[in-house]
Write a structure and sequence with these properties.
Structural class: alpha+beta
Strand order of the largest sheet: 4-1-6-7-8
Distance between the termini: 17 Å
Radius of gyration: 14 Å
Number of helices: 3
Shape: globular
Order of helices and strands: EEEEHEEHHEE
């Protein structure tokens, strides 16, 4: 992984019968150790992304496109951002194939988490693989 990998929050969703994949990301100043989660930056990116998604609800009802795996946090090397992530996003928007999306994501990222929250609990980041 690069010295300063990028952290990206992704929302796999549908709106008005069309798939969408908004994202938010930032480079990490401090990378979480293996086995740890990038809690502070991950939570901040999730909040930023969810606020943008919520604003989109003005244009119609929103639906999670991948159930519990609809909101993801992914660590990527900087060189993956302009090359691989747009291709992966376009493929998912066209096909909606969640298995292919996850397989492609795994090829470009060593670490990924689902983002969830339970009533009266803090945000949870669980390893995707």
């Amino acid at each position: 992984m690069a010295d300063s990998p990028y952290l990206v929050a992704l929302a796999l969703m549908e709106q008005g019968g069309k798939r969408a994949l908004p994202l938010a990301g930032r480079s990490q100043k401090q990378v979480a150790e293996p086995g740890d989660v990038p809690r502070d930056l991950g939570h901040a990116l999730a909040l930023e992304l969810l606020l943008r998604v919520w604003q989109r609800s003005d244009d119609g009802a929103l639906c999670r496109a991948a159930a519990a795996e609809s909101l993801l946090l992914v660590e990527l090397a900087m060189e993956r951002l302009p090359e691989d992530l747009p291709v992966l996003k376009a493929a998912w928007l066209t096909s909606g194939d969640l298995g292919a999306f996850k397989a492609g994501l795994r090829k470009i990222s060593e670490r990924a988490w689902t983002i969830s929250v339970a009533k009266f609990q803090p945000i949870s980041l669980m390893p995707l693989w």
